[in-house]
Amino acid sequence: MTIAISLKDVHKVYANGSEALKGISLDVEQGDFFALLGPNGAGKTTIIGIISTLVNKTAGSVEVFGKRVDTHIYETKLDFGVVPQEINFSQFERVRDIVMTQAGYYGLPHKLASQRCEKYLRKLGLWEKRNERSRTLSGGMKRRLMIARALVHEPRLLILDEPTAGVDIELRRSMWEFLTEINNKGTTIILTTHYLEEAEQLCRNIAIIDEGKIIEKTSMKSLLADLDSQVYILDSAAELPAQLSLDLSNTGLRRIDGHSFEVTVSGDQSINEVFSRLDQQGVQVSSMRNKTNRLEQLFLARLRDS
Amino acid sequence: MFANHKLIAFETIVIKEVRRFSRIWLQTLVPPAIMITLYFVIFGNLVGRRIGEMGGFQYMEFIVPGLIMMSVIQNSYSNVVSSFFSHKFQRSIEELLVSPVPNYVILTGFIAGGMARGLAVGAIVTITAMFFTDLSIQYPWITIAVILLTSIVFSLAGFINAVFANSFDDISIIPTFVLTPLIYLGGVFYSSQLLPPFWQFVSGLNPIFYMVNTFRYGILGSSDVNVYWAFLILGVFIGVLYSSCIWLLRRGTGIRS
Ligand SMILES: Nc1ncnc2c1ncn2[C@@H]1O[C@H](COP(=O)(O)OP(=O)(O)OP(=O)(O)O)[C@@H](O)[C@H]1O
Ligand SMILES: [Mg+2]
Q: Is this complex scored with an ipTM above 0.95?
């Protein structure tokens, strides 16, 4: 399996002393649709900045399709396209010129450049706007323009930093469709997002990052399974029986010590059922608490921020 | 990147630069033309008639080369400094930094853009001058070489200014407080032979003095300085400034965090 991008123990300390990344290691396979999820200030944009060389890393290594970004500058850069979080095209240029200029930076001959430019501007619904100055576009159109710009050299890897921030739900869905389509055609995609729903809709794998560290790396499926269930810690007054089993589907049980155990209950399972099974086995629950879920905390923090 | 890709990238930058200053021609091409015309009318025509001869030529003839040079210097510098800074300011410089374009192609692209504007304005001024005086060029090759090299020097200098600039004020400080005085004291309006020995010596420390005088030599055939010295100075400046720019780009000063 080819690795599209590999980060090894990447650190970043900005000039003002702020430690944005504290040892990020991450592999994304070719063909994957990968989400970097995390609250404001987690370090997502810094990671993308380091991959795309806009940010100088303090330590660690970055490889794109097996080649180090700092030694194989040209090969690696041809392989990826970046859609940044903030608008970074000239506000005075025309839409078409912005895409054509980008094509020129990647060495595309004029004819090929104009074909690609038309192709992607049409796909992103901007062809009618091609002669407008970019500052006259709406926020959503500006985002789409940056996607068209990132695709004009048809990179194998597309990196998007919050592509749907501030985009209405309808447009967001059409962007999702578009991204899924190009991923199905083989482009590896990495995106950062605040929207769990977005990652859920699109991505196969996910890394959750907080305060410059990856706190969870998993497949979207198992993350959703986790999110969908609650974990309780139950204590029993008496010593637990040697054999303890709930025998319920969608419910897990894990012994912690002689008096306490953990029960995982999925969303559609009633907790009453759990209690009656325990009762049958002579277990008297003396106290019960919700196990704090790091993810949940994270999402709460996210809600608080927004 | 293959050589032909680099060439395409270079052309792209140059076209973008030319498009930028042509789009805002009212700010970039017209003001220098008006200013220089005023110089011709006031200094050349009205005051000049009273002055009579300077360095062996009619005053009007004498100042024409200096004014052409002045416009090339100012416009080459100002094109690169304002364009590169506005790329930084609007963050569109990121388009280039993320792309595979090598640093030297980025630099030469901006330099070519600065030269294009400097020479365009130089041409406008030259044409304007022809309404006021007869221009015949004594040494065309020297004239062309000096103007091209000078334009490179000040484009490079403008680039360095832009790299360090953090605000719009920062891009006007050097032109106002350094460049303009050096140009005015660089023998645009007078021959250094009028100066007392001490001030002649001080003039000799001003690089622009050599450029203006060599350009005047190319056009009129007479100069206050040794022409070889001038080319040597131009060469050294280009070498030092170019290497500094490449070094700054590689470090990412002012553009990568
Ligand atoms: N240029 C910079 N100079 C100094 N500190 C910076 C710089 N850019 C980012 N930081 C700091 O680095 C940390 C990570 O920022 P980053 O932009 O990577 O977060 P993020 O995950 O993209 O957040 P958001 O979701 O808000 O976009 C933050 O604490 C931020 O203040
Ligand atoms: Mg960010």
A: no
